Amino acid sequence: MILRTHIFVACLLMFWTSAAYSASVSAVKGQKVLINLEGDATSEGDEFYLLNPANNKKTAIIRIKQVKGSKALGEIVKGRAAQGYALQAKAASKMSADVPASETSEEEAAPVSRNDMSYLRVVKDSYGVTGSYIMNSMNADVSYKDGFGISHKTSTSMSGSGFGVGGFYDYALGQSLIGRGSAAIEQFNVSGNASEAACAGSTSCDAKINYLSLYGLLKWYPIQGKYRGWIGGGMGYMLAVSKSSTALNESQISTNQVFTFAVGTDIQMNRKNYIPISIEYNLFPASDTVKANMIVIKGGWAWNL
Predict the structure, then answer these.
(1) Which of 30, 89, 192, 229 is most buried, judged by most C-beta within 10 A?
(2) Host H or E run for residue 68
């Protein structure tokens, strides 16, 4: 009876070992592993433990990225892989925390390499700095008096460019929604010609204003990955910190409100950093005498929290 029990237990162990070790790693390159399935069924997104056949210990977690015939391509989520390591099914809900810390080396516990792109699927809080190239335009009605003291009005179309520098903070509101607050120093420089000598006795008209700008923006990310595309909209308040103009009444240049529409891309460099690039259109609410807008091209460097 004892002999039969031993034989039965041995058969169970052989069956379990066969099930756990049927599929194995045939090659490792960076964070990718090539797997011989040996007839085992699997599909994209399935996760497995890797077992060292020498001691039957878990050394890594992998996720299946592609299946073709008897071969599969996997991605190392955590840990270390080597040729000959076997696969064991893993419950998806346990995630990567199931690999004991004692079974990974100091190198494995370090932040994942650029080849592990799982961080691209998570929108996080971040902050950054930006530089801007600004294209400005303005149409203004200019009032003036002739030599006889009679009031006249003429129109002038002006354009120009300037630069800006600032910073931002992005707060994650959801899986694909970000709220951004930003501040910047921005130049609004325009110049043009009027048909009459209406701008301080000259046909040459201009406006040169430096603004302290504060913006609130809501961004939606329809595209996730290394290149995270987004669209957004919001509002801004611009406080004039210095000003000079021959086309406008300087005493009336103080604070402006703008409506902002923007598109952009965050280029993920690694888990901690990305390059924010955007094009923003700022529209000043039109008055009876002035219409103005800004096209702002921004680029910078940002840090994920």
Answers:
(1) 192
(2) strand 57-68
Do residues 72 and 66 make contact, with C-beta atoms less than 8 angstroms apart?
A: yes
pTM of the entire predicted model: 0.61
DSSP 194: B
Place of tokens 């005493």: 251
Rounded Cα distance, 47 and 89, in Å: 7
pLDDT tens string 243-266:
999 988 888 888 999 999 999 999
Is the Cα torsion angle 124, 125, 128, 131 positive or negative in sign?
Answer: positive
Digit-coded pLDDT (tens) for 120-166: 666 789 999 999 999 999 999 888 777 666 777 888 999 999 999 99
**How many angstroms separate the CA atoms of 134 and 187, rounded?**
7
H, E, C per residue of 155-166? EEEEEEEEEEEE
Cα(294)–Cα(283) distance, integer angstroms: 7
